[in-house]
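re: ur question from earlier - yeah i can do the single chain one, its not a big deal. heres the input i used so u can compare w yours
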Amino acid sequence: MTTLTSGTDTLTRDALTVLQPGFTGTTAPDWLLRRLGEGLASVGLFGRNITSPGQLAALTAQLRAERDDVLVAIDEEGGDVTRLEVRSGSSFPGNHALGAVDDVELTQQVAHELGRRLAACGVNLNWAPSADVNSDPRNPVIGVRSFGADTGLAARHTAAYVTGLQSAGVAACTKHFPGHGDTAVDSHHALPRIDVSAELLGERELAPFRAAIAAGTRAVMSAHLLVPALDPERPATLSRRILTGLLREELGYDGLIVTDGMEMRAIAGTYGIERGSVLAIAAGADAICVGGGLADDATVLRLRDALVSAVRAGELPEERLSDAADRVRALARWASTAGHPAEDTHGTGIGLHAARRALTVTAAPGLGDPTAFKPLTEPPYVAALTPVANIAVGDETPWGVAAELIHLLPGTVTGGFSAGDGPESEAGESAARAALQAAGPRRIVAVVRDEHRHPWMASALDVLLAARPDTVVVEMGVPQAAPRGALHIATHGAGRVCGRAAAEVIAGNTGM
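and the output i got, formated as tokens:
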């Protein structure tokens, strides 16, 4: 497509305004600053853009020097999905841990403190929380990002999270509408399909979004999934029936609608990002999220020009694009005047406190009360059974209990094991044999993540526990599989503080 020469006319400015692009590097590139001057109103940040709070604050200040009301967005859920602490692991447990505690005041406090830290760095829009009801335990992309499988629990904690986050001056973006929990397909890779009745969707999937709307969520993110009961032809992100008919008209939502990343295969592989962006705005979306994978000026120009050309060709009403741009500007005004708490009102340890409360500690069948477990006094061998990380979580954030055990039990040794390319049953046995050999006489701590979704992990634990019944098992995903091991610790997430809380139990140092 030919690049438009004008960057200042109203139509072109509106087309830029509805984009939320990303970029590479830890300082703003010249092209991004130039587009901010031409009308771009939002920027999305990822882990690749962040090295420290100070660096992030300098980056956001650089952006605001060009446009003082710019929306700076980030995907900071806490727990497994962190961008602020992508290289160290999160100081906050994620949604599933908060749901396990089921204390809405605690959830609100955690969200407030996370928002306070974002605001202190100049971030004012958070693509969180996930309001998905994790009703399918096979779900490969939601899992611990959900508050849980119970609709009421998910609804009340979604509302609490929205309230806490926005009390810190950071806009919440509740996702993934109309609900991504009942699927075994990751929309980063393909188009999921949810085949349930409209009645069940209304009772289950939509309840947390109703709660978020009632709590005043400033933004809602659409999901790239097909819901035939609502629209048999187009995925939610591109569906006028879902975004306008359901979300706007039926649920009465009047805030910003943001798409999930348009370069995800569910959209890019079927419609292409240009056509997908046009259809999304036409359907009722107000902002196009792009930049997780495609993060350059050429992408911004392609999408800008596609929107302008669609208006000129009569495929996209100009008033619809103008309305979308106005909603972006309205949120930018709110964010620039919301005010940011200057002090930590809940204590910097709120994340660890929440992670400790989230633990479920179970003794092996027949071994009695878990409080009878004798903490380790000698450094163990930690065998981390590692699955392939989904794209939302990424593989650059460390997880587990080894780093924390090393502090509590110096001399702790660790090794990582994965399924590899062979049959899963053989992979599990092979991993277990390797772990046993590496451990030698040391006590073994086996760390898993969603054992119920990975047969090779279950097989590995079978072999480990047959050979070493005194093995401690730590489940850092959804604890769907039956507890086993001399002691079984479910952390309900893999944030750094979750690993710390589990390590304290193993070493008998509760930190309380």
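Residues 1-7 have pLDDT under 50 and may be disordered. not sure if urs matches, ping me
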